[in-house]
Amino acid sequence: MNIGDLRIEPPVLMAPLAGVTDSVFRRLAREYGAGLVFTEMISAQGLIHGGLKTLQLMAFTSEERPIGVQLFGCDPQAMARAAQIAARQEPDLIDLNFGCPARKVVGQNRGSALLRDLDLLERIVRSVTAAVDLPVTAKIRSGWDRGSIVAVKVARICAGCGAAAVTVHPRTRQQGFSGHSDWGLIADVKQAVDIPVIGNGDIRQPEDGLRMVRETGCDAVMIGRGAMGRPWLLGQTACLLSGRQPDSEPDVDERIELCLRHARLQVDAKGPTVGIRQMRKHFGWYTKGFPGATRLRSILVIQKRLEDVEKVFRDYRLRQDAGTPAMA
Fold this sequence. Notes:
This protein is α/β, with parallel strands linked by helices.
């Protein structure tokens, strides 16, 4: 798949996830097979005002390329200015968030709230595409609720304003992340526009990604929550899309080693205190399905030092080898 002149190979993208897809996670996602990654969503106003935390969200390394910077906001001029600031860091593209369902985001008329104001959404896309030379993409949802399904109309607006691709998560804002995504809407968008369409939603196994492509005709798939604690899902999906047999699921020992590697990278990047604190949610995802997982997680999330986390896993392995994986 090409987004403008940017070649995406394989056509499997890691979704931007607030509080999850930081630089360390993105590096792992690329290593495990993502053809494109994104920053966490970044406030246009925060970027314009030069807030340290906002600037840190935008930082990335060469190992993460190709990478898109995702922006959110509701003022066309501010979004254009923020895109210009982001472009100075030379990302590979700019992505516009019209899909975030979080209350604190939509409460300020941003994210998926813009699906209720298509005139404003159009002005934002037009302003950003005119402001930067990079490819501009958009991530959208079906609509605000079941009574206002606007994905096809929004995709046409984006394409008409110069967007280079559109990602469709076919749930409404009202659904949040509940229920099922309507993949038929991805197919409708694909039929309606001549720019690449990326399908997103309910890809939990590699077979889901292949089925989405076959059922919708989308040009690429984007994986979000399914890759939390399972970055290998990206590569498995890429294998199936290329006609190859994917590797089997890693066993418990392999998942522990990856979790520890992630923790070490996080400590290197954020320092010992913040690094381990930010790993707590990842511990839950990496250990999902482990024997005695509930008790193991309850012990991991109270650890404050990397060496203590390593000891917890070491003790867990010893108990598992002895046939008693439950933690004392």
